[in-house]
Design brief:
2 helices, four-stranded antiparallel beta sheet, single chain, alpha+beta, elongated
C-alpha cells in the first residue's frame, strides 16, 4: 500500500507560509502604529524645524572642556550620593546644547522625549544620565511642554575631542496616543 504524502506536505508548507504572512502583516501593523505614535525632528542651530505641530531649535552650543567640576554642580545629587560626588572627567569633551521646543499640539509632550547629538561626521551620542547635576533646575532636559507653550532646555553630551560643529540634535517624541500606550 502506497501512501500519498503530497497533500500532507502541501498542507504543512501552506501552514508555514500562512503563518509567515500573518507575522509579516503584524510586523507591518506595529511599524505603522509606531510611526503614527512618534514625532522625530533634527534640530539645528539658528534654524527653526517644525514637524507635526512641534518646533525645535538649537539656541546655543558650548564646549565645557574635559572636566565638569564638583563645585560647579547646580543641581546636586540626593544626600546619599552627595558624599560620593566628584569631578566628572572624560578623555573627550563635554558639549552643552541649549535648545527650545514649542508645542502647538493639543496634548502635553516631554515625559517620553529622547535626544541624540549628531556631530559634523554624523556620529551619534546619547546624553549622560549623570550629567544633569550640572544643569540648573530651570533648564532641566526632557521637561513636559504643555500645549501652546515653549520651553528652553539644556542637555550635556560626552563626545570625542575631535567632534566638531555643526552639531544637530535628533529629538524623538513618543506621543500619548498610539498602539504602545
Amino acid at each position: 500500500m502506497k501512501i500519498n504524502l503530497a497533500p500532507f506536505v502541501q498542507g504543512i508548507l501552506g501552514g508555514i507560509v500562512g503563518a509567515f504572512l500573518i507575522f509579516l502583516l503584524f510586523l507591518g501593523y506595529f511599524k505603522i502604529m509606531d510611526k503614527i505614535s512618534t514625532i522625530s525632528l533634527i534640530c539645528e542651530k539658528e534654524k527653526i524645524i517644525k514637524s507635526r505641530s512641534i518646533e525645535c531649535q538649537i539656541l546655543e552650543v558650548k564646549d565645557l572642556g574635559e572636566t565638569l567640576k564638583k563645585e560647579d554642580m547646580v543641581s546636586p545629587p540626593p544626600e546619599l550620593e552627595r558624599e560620593f560626588a566628584k569631578d566628572k572627567k572624560t578623555s573627550g569633551k563635554f558639549i552643552q546644547i541649549k535648545y527650545k521646543i514649542k508645542n502647538e499640539r493639543k496634548e502635553e509632550i516631554g515625559d517620553r522625549l529622547f535626544l541624540t547629538l549628531i556631530d559634523k561626521t554624523n556620529r551619534e551620542y546619547e546624553p549622560g544620565w549623570d550629567l544633569i547635576y550640572w544643569i540648573s533646575e530651570e533648564y532641566q532636559p526632557r521637561q513636559e511642554v504643555p500645549p501652546g507653550l515653549e520651553k528652553e532646555m539644556i542637555e550635556i553630551f560626552e563626545v570625542p575631542k575631535e567632534s566638531q560643529e555643526p552639531f544637530k540634535l535628533k529629538i524623538k517624541i513618543l506621543l500619548n496616543k498610539g498602539f504602545f500606550d
